[in-house]
From TrEMBL:
Coiled coil: none annotated. Keywords: Metal-binding, Oxidoreductase, Zinc. The lineage of its organism: Bacteria, Candidatus Zambryskiibacteriota. Residues 573-678 form the Alcohol dehydrogenase-like N-terminal domain. One of its GO terms (molecular function) is 3-deoxy-manno-octulosonate cytidylyltransferase activity. It comes from the Bacteria. This is 3-deoxy-manno-octulosonate cytidylyltransferase.
């Protein structure tokens, strides 16, 4: 019986299969040079193939090429790349080389490699699923090839369309470019690994050369090719004429809109429903809607989905105005990009038409529309709207300081040339408009594209809005904030002007509102204007610091580790790039190496991975998130959390599960997982904040059951046991420590009540903390502990234990486990470290490249803790 789940296929309890997809591509096509990067609907063809080939049965999808141009594009879309020789004439030979390289790189043997030709942009994941399934259902099949109906006489007679004749069991008889009575070949071909390599080693044959079709080599050498029918209408691209045909078909299939509306949201459930209702009533209908949501905790995404919008969800830590817009723009299919705030409402049904139509003038780069207040708007803001957004249209060729992405439209082709600045705290719209005017384009103000802009801000929000805009104004070189001023004279003039304008509807309440709004507007602008000189905008320094030299220790598989160059992933707005100062060796690192850690046995974690979760570092670059830019400076000393997500569906632990760790010169980590090292604390000692946080969390989990002066046994005097014993002793508990290693007991004996080797007296303890990970020790702890004992498990890995749980219930014992520390534990750990005896934790430091020697030293137990220094 075959069972399919995710990318894995399993048969009769045997090993899971490693199934990968490979898209071979080269620029030097004889019939269509440069074909892989030829654009279809604005995207290079190979981008469509990669995007449309993500079958759930594939563990990973690669692009194999010999051309730098293709590799550069593949990298830009996040596709894994395999560089191959430039001498391959056949795609299958390129795939065979790629398979061997992938196996060498990952340390994992490939079971099935699916060749997906780079000229099949209309492919669908279900086509790949069907081809793989056919192979899995018949173990005797070495290669499968898809085929489809020929739908026209032109296609039948086209020599650029390969055909295949099949027998009654759908095995191939002949592949030909001649108009034979047949099906057309669809170039999706799963190969069993050994079959592929054997095929690649076979001599080319006569029919293969005559027809220029790889698969004839199989047939002429006496091998079978299983053909599987695909009902999906698809066409390959062999010539520029094919490209035009496919583009027309894809445009029709996907109903590519002229305009893409991009809306940024965060907890806008109350407003966004009204906005979507207004969009439904617009006279201009050729649009799609993309919502970029920054971690809403209300029903914003659900409301948007109910109207058919495409949703892009990002963590709130990754939000910046420019980053969110750029994400939406990348997904947009329209040639015009409209930006609308989630708290605006069009004044009439022609808003969108009036906003978009000026872009038909090739000289116009951007259009922004009029903004009006609503009765609930603050009076002074309504005055600003009247001042900034008048009744007359304007075409500007000079830098404009009032363009506003709450209500604007730009050309996508120009956005592709210049993305929005992701490091600004606001005013990304003005920054972009100024750049376009320098290129000679027009910025149009179109008052007929009017919206109501609904701000319901508290006073601190008014302050912060104008503060960040003032910081951005400094950043882009404005002479003053665009909607405010920083002088006392400006404040006085605005107050008098607003109060006079409020007549005849003058009231004390309105005057109070005017005073408050103008004060917080002025105060925020003034504060931000001065802060702007101090904010550390590291993005200006030549991409600041993406280091070329980033040597890392990479565990590629069980007992396979190497020291090599490791490219860094993209720095998201909520991330920080660290230069690693110290990383502690933990037993978990070796359990990852040896494959004994349960996460790797159970498939929760996968190789390759860079280990290391106990670390200190120096901030080298800061993501563009506003809060990070204000919270951190380049050069700050920090430590980081290990547990990034406890969610079982997407579990991430630094250096352990699905997230590369600190055995590296540089590492990237979410900024909200970092904590400043207090002044005066040695970074070597600070690296121990993570294991101490583990201890603090464990103690929190059993604290309610610990009476004052409770007797506690700590079993295992390693780093975790040592820290637990010291911490509990400081809190006044009667602590005893047990270990077979006398040297480790000597390190702790002066800080606890007693130490020992024997476990004969376990029944006298109120609580027991097991930190060895030994199955035998755990069995004894559970068996010998007294009634109502509290047992905390901190060791890994225990394995399976046969235990009578009736005894556990009858004797009313409480057993708890704890993994990692939480964010709240790190500040306490950093403040507690100076109070502990940490001398033994920094005695042995190895260079990172000597990691294997350090691991061997760790295994001897001679040192309590060994550190690596990149």
């Amino acid at each position: 019986m075959l069972v399919f789940g995710g990318f894995m296929a399993q048969k009769d309890g045997k090993k899971e299969l490693n199934i990968i997809g490979i898209i071979p591509a080269r620029m030097g096509s004889s019939r269509f040079p440069g074909k892989p990067l030829a654009k279809i609907l604005g995207m290079p063809m190979i981008g469509h193939v990669y995007k449309n080939s993500k079958s759930s049965l594939l563990k990973k999808l690669y692009i194999a090429t010999c051309d730098k141009e293709i590799a550069d594009y593949a990298a830009s879309i996040g596709a894994p790349i395999v560089m191959t020789k430039d001498t391959h004439e056949r795609a299958s030979d390129r795939v065979a080389e790629a398979v061997e390289k992938i196996e060498k790189e990952t340390g994992e043997p490939v079971d099935i490699a699916v060749m997906i030709q780079g000229d099949e942009p209309m492919i669908k994941p279900e086509m790949i699923d069907g081809a793989i399934t056919a192979m899995l259902e018949d173990q005797s099949i070495g290669v499968v090839n898809l085929m489809a109906l020929i739908r026209s006489a032109d296609e039948q007679n086209d020599p650029n369309c390969p055909k295949v004749a099949v027998d009654r069991e759908n095995f191939a008889l002949l592949f030909s470019r001649k108009p034979i009575s047949s099906f057309k070949q669809v170039c999706v071909m799963p190969f069993r690994r050994d079959y592929l390599l054997k095929f690649s080693s076979l001599e080319p044959t006569t029919y293969e050369r005559d027809e220029s079709i790889d698969m004839n080599r199989f047939l002429e050498h006496g091998h079978k090719v299983k053909m599987v029918h695909s009902s999906v209408e698809t066409y390959s691209v062999d010539t520029p004429e094919d490209l035009k045909k496919v583009e027309r078909l894809m445009a029709k299939e996907f109903s590519v809109p002229e305009t893409s509306i991009i809306i940024r949201t965060y907890n806008e459930e109350k407003n966004i429903d009204n906005l979507f209702k207004a969009l439904k009533d617009q006279s201009y209908r050729d649009f799609e809607v993309i919502v970029v949501d920054s971690g809403s905790t209300d029903r914003t995404p659900e409301v948007a989905r109910s109207y058919g919008a495409k949703i892009i969800e990002i963590p709130s830590r990754d939000f910046t105005f420019g980053y969110s817009l750029n994400l939406g723009c990348r997904e947009a299919r329209g040639r015009y990009l409209v930006f609308a705030s989630s708290h605006i409402l069009p004044v009439n049904n022609d808003w969108l038409k009036n906003l978009v139509y000026p872009l038909e003038n090739g000289k116009v780069a951007m259009v922004y529309g009029r903004q009006l207040g609503v009765p609930e708007s603050k009076f002074s803001e309504q005055m600003d709207f009247q001042r900034l957004f008048g009744a007359s249209a304007v075409n500007s060729t000079v830098p404009i300081d009032y363009a506003n992405n709450a209500n604007s439209a730009v050309r996508k082709d120009l956005w592709e040339k210049r993305k929005f600045n992701e490091y600004l705290f606001g005013l990304e719209d003005i920054d972009w408009a100024r750049a376009m005017t320098k290129e000679g384009y027009l910025i149009r103000y179109e008052p007929r594209a009017s919206i109501y802009h609904i701000h319901t801000e508290a006073w601190h929000q008014v302050f912060n809005r104008y503060r960040r805009e003032a910081i951005a104004a400094v950043r882009i070189g404005l002479k003053e904030p665009p909607q405010s001023g920083v002088s006392y004279l400006w404040l006085f003039e605005r107050l008098i002007s607003d109060i006079v304008a409020s007549f005849p509807n003058w009231s004390l309440k309105r005057v109070e509102e005017i005073l408050r709004f103008r004060y917080y507007q002025w105060k925020g602008s003034r504060t931000g204007w001065h802060q702007g000189d101090d904010i550390n905008f590291e993005s200006d320094k030549a991409e600041v610091f993406y280091p070329l030299d980033n040597k890392s220790v990479i565990i590629k598989g069980k007992d396979k580790a190497e020291f090599k160059e490791q490219p860094l992933p993209e720095l998201n707005p909520g991330d920080v790039l660290l230069s690693v100062d110290y990383v502690g060796i933990c037993r978990t690192d070796l359990e990852v190496l040896e494959g004994t850690l349960g996460y790797y046995r159970d498939g929760i974690a996968n190789y390759p991975i860079v280990p290391g979760h106990e670390f200190s570092g120096t901030v080298a670059r800061i993501g563009s998130n506003t809060h990070l830019q204000e919270r951190f400076k380049v050069g700050d000393k920090v430590v980081g959390e290990c547990i990034l997500s406890r969610d079982s569906a997407n579990r991430q632990e630094v250096g352990v599960i699905n997230y590369n760790g600190a055995y590296s010169k540089y590492m990237i980590i979410p900024g909200d997982a970092l904590h400043h090292i207090p002044a005066g604390l040695d970074p070597k000692v600070a690296a121990m904040a993570e294991p101490l946080a583990v201890v603090l969390r464990a103690i929190r989990r059993i604290k309610e059951r610990l009476k004052p002066e409770a007797s506690i046994a700590v079993i295992g005097a390693g780093p975790i046991g040592n820290l637990a014993a010291q911490t509990l002793s400081l809190e006044g508990y009667q602590v005893s420590v047990f270990d077979k290693n006398q040297n480790r007991l000597d390190l702790i004996k002066d800080k606890v009540k007693e130490v020992g080797v024997s476990l004969d007296h376990l029944p006298k303890f109120d609580a027991l903390i097991e930190g060895t990970g030994s199955k035998e020790v755990l069995e004894r702890v559970i068996r010998d502990s007294k009634n109502d004992a509290t047992i905390m498990l901190l060791g890994f890995p225990y394995g399976n234990i046969d235990y009578n749980f009736e005894d556990l219930v009858g004797r009313e014992k409480v057993i708890a486990g704890s993994v990692g520390g939480d964010s709240q534990d790190f500040p306490k750990a950093l403040s507690l470290l100076p109070k502990l005896d940490m001398r033994a934790f920094g005695e042995s430091v190895f260079p990172l490249e000597d990691f294997e020697k350090a691991w061997e030293m760790h295994r001897t137990g001679e040192y309590l803790k060994i550190l690596l220094k990149p």
